[in-house]
Q: What sequence folds into this?
């Protein structure tokens, strides 16, 4: 399917590996011009053709300002911003979580989206097909025991998304959030391993319990998340805004 994204100008945060790279690669395959930021210098050095990037920590406002100036200059404008950057955060009972770990999780996963988006809005308003897609999580729709910092950040992303959709809609900018469920990869494995350790259970038991709450008993892939984002960024998604869209295999809760 031709999504009409040839020449589309795209920024993806944390776009050099994992879900972010799948998103960036998906846009590049469609002919978009893609710029990413990441903290993984090795991954940045091996970006595929059609994607350029540089180091940036989205929680560092000065660093974000420098990156955005460079990215917008590289692209000559902006049609789509994908706020993908986030950290898994700590696993444990609330009273055992170090305040600095809470701060890091919120500053990257929520405030980082503010830091980047505020510098992208003016460029997006000049596009004839402008969109912002924020990565939340199913943890932004349901509770997630022993994962309060992460859930708090992801719930915050939903409020940020819906409020910004109302604010920017009159200027023709769509804003949506994607809520992945159990995503295949090292990050999900580490989260489940940490839950298993915190609960004194085996990884196998914790994984089985997680999938007991899903209708589709398989991991979501990064490419499936990218596919949904590409559709939202295309003209085919031109009337979709203010939505929190789950890509989760119909997961009822997280445990």
A:
């Amino acid at each position: 399917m031709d999504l009409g994204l040839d020449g589309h100008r795209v920024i993806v945060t944390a776009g050099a590996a994992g879900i972010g790279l799948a998103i960036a690669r998906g846009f590049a395959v469609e002919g978009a011009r893609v710029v990413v930021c990441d903290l993984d210098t090795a991954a940045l050095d091996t970006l595929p053709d059609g994607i350029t990037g540089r180091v940036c920590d989205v929680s560092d406002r000065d660093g974000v300002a420098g990156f955005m100036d460079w990215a917008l200059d590289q692209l000559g404008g902006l049609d789509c911003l994908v706020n993908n950057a986030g950290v898994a955060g700590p696993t444990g009972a609330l009273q055992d979580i170090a305040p600095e770990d809470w701060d890091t999780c919120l500053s990257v996963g929520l405030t980082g989206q503010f830091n980047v988006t505020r510098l992208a809005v003016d460029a997006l308003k000049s596009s004839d097909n402008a969109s912002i897609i924020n990565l939340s999580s199913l943890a932004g729709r349901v509770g997630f025991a022993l994962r309060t910092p992460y859930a708090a950040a992801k719930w915050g992303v939903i409020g940020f998304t819906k409020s910004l959709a109302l604010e920017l809609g009159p200027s023709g900018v769509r804003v949506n959030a994607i809520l992945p469920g159990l995503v295949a990869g090292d990050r999900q494995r580490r989260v489940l391993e940490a839950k298993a350790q915190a609960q004194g259970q085996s990884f196998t038991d914790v994984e089985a319990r997680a999938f007991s709450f899903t209708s589709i008993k398989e991991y979501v892939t990064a490419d499936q998340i990218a596919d949904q984002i590409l559709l939202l960024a295309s003209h085919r998604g031109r009337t979709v805004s203010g939505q929190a869209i789950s890509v989760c295999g119909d997961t009822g809760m997280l445990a």
